[in-house]
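User: Just a sanity check before I run the rest of the batch. Below are the structure tokens for the first item. I only need the designed sequence back.
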């Protein structure tokens, strides 16, 4: 299980790195587009479509696993906090298993859709033609690594009584 933990950590960090690069590319593209539009009256053709098809998809879906790994997704546990520890752990495992099933389905369907888009060479007709199918593969990649991470958390919650899904304190993160 330690190997899966390391693999998931590396994959989650790699996807976050790609998302950060996509964020900077999106920012640079938008700045250049605005400058070209205002100074030369020649905006980048298809800029909005490229940003929404490629950059935004990468920025939103690739970091999911790292956010889960750090337990930083939004949770509401007003009632769960009041339950006995054993019941809390049972609910936590059930919740992680349901999430794993959900992300397995998302991985399967988005991979199927991405493959279909690849087979037909899916494009977006804008002021220019934009090849869409490569961006469609970002979703199943992000969902698959999220599936691995949620499954790992389910396993840890089931076997480790000390497993705590609370996010790390900002003070502790600054010390590391």
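Assistant: Here's the designed sequence for the first item:
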């Amino acid at each position: 299980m330690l190997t899966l933990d390391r693999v998931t950590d590396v994959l989650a960090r790699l996807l976050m790195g790609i998302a950060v690069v996509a964020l900077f590319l999106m920012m640079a593209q938008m700045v250049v587009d605005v400058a070209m539009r205002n100074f030369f009256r020649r905006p980048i053709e298809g800029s909005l479509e490229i940003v929404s098809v490629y950059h935004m998809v990468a920025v939103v879906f690739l970091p999911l696993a790292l956010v889960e790994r750090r337990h930083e997704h939004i949770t509401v546990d007003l009632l769960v906090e009041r339950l006995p520890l054993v019941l809390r752990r049972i609910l936590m495992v059930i919740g992680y298993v349901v999430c794993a099933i959900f992300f397995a389905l998302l991985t399967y369907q988005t991979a199927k859709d991405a493959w279909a888009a690849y087979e037909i060479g899916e494009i977006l007709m804008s002021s220019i033609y934009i090849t869409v199918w490569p961006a469609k593969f970002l979703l199943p990649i992000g969902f698959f690594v999220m599936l691995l991470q949620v499954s790992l958390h389910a396993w840890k919650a089931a076997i480790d009584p000390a497993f705590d899904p609370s996010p790390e304190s900002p003070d502790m993160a600054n010390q590391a």
